[in-house]
């Protein structure tokens, strides 16, 4: 039989351990889930990227569905994936193309041809809504500029936030993909995608990285897209400089 002081000490220690477990267990679960969530922006590479990619022509982005058209399913003519797409303006596509170029420029490892110099290809793609021969067009753009690769992507959704930075009726929501194409044979050297609707931290604890990046405010569609571009270009840089692929 324990004495009264021993019993009191035992009960006190047990109570303290229970409190620590109640505090630590949810924190451990959150850290575990966040660790799993970090893999969301990693992309599986089926085969190593070829060495020696130095010159890249940035054709940029195009809305999968143009303004004035109805939303609907869109089958990517490059990778064959099917997405539910909404109308996206040419202005948005041009701004995203410029942002893509600037993020690639920050990497500082490539000789880049900007979207402006790829305007002939862009104008043809935009004016004709070309899908069937788009790979051949991208190949020609790469060959005519002696590029090792061509960057091109589709924007599938671009919903601007409704409200202000500290309170919204509807948050920003975007979806786009990027393809790095070989001018030599039209194959996909790399592909990445970003699909996100901003949520408050209380709605989704796994979105902590975006919450920190936004400093707790509601982002515009372009600000949200820039987070996506930064992640994709970061992953591309790792792929180009590593022989170990996920």
What is the element string, with H for helices and E for strands? Answer: HEEEEEHEHHEEEEEHH
CATH topology of the largest domain: Rossmann fold
Category from helices, strands and their pairing: alpha/beta
Side by side, the strands of the main sheet go 6-1-7-10-11
Overall mean pLDDT score? Answer: 77
CATH homologous superfamily assignment of the largest domain: ABC-type transport auxiliary lipoprotein component
Sheet with the most strands? 5 strands, mixed
Low-confidence spans: pLDDT under 50, at least 5 residues? Answer: 24-47, 242-246
Strand content: 15-25%
Quick one: how many beta strands? 11
Task: Domain count, please report it.
Answer: 2
Query: How big is the Rg?
Result: 24 Å
The first-level CATH class of the largest domain is given as: Alpha Beta
């Amino acid at each position: 039989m324990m004495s009264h002081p021993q019993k009191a000490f035992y009960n006190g220690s047990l109570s303290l351990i229970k409190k620590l477990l109640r505090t630590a267990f949810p924190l451990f679960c959150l850290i575990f889930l966040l660790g799993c969530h970090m893999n969301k922006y990693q992309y599986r590479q089926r085969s190593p990227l070829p060495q020696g990619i130095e010159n890249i022509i940035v054709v940029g982005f195009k809305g999968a569905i143009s303004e004035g058209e109805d939303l609907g399913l869109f089958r990517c003519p490059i990778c064959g994936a099917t997405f539910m797409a909404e109308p996206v303006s040419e202005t948005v596509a041009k701004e995203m193309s410029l942002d893509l170029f600037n993020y690639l420029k920050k990497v500082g490892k490539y000789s880049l041809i900007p979207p402006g110099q790829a305007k002939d290809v862009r104008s043809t793609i935009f004016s004709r809504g070309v899908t069937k021969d788009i790979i051949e067009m991208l190949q020609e753009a790469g060959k005519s500029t002696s590029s090792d690769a061509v960057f091109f992507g589709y924007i599938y959704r671009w919903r601007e936030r409704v409200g202000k930075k500290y309170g919204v009726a509807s948050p920003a929501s975007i979806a786009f993909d990027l393809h790095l194409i070989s001018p030599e044979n039209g194959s996909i050297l790399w592909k990445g995608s970003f699909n996100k609707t901003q949520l408050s931290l209380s709605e989704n604890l796994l979105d902590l990285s975006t919450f920190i990046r936004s400093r707790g405010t509601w982002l515009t569609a372009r600000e949200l897209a820039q987070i996506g571009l930064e992640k994709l270009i970061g992953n591309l840089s790792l792929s180009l400089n590593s022989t170990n692929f996920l």
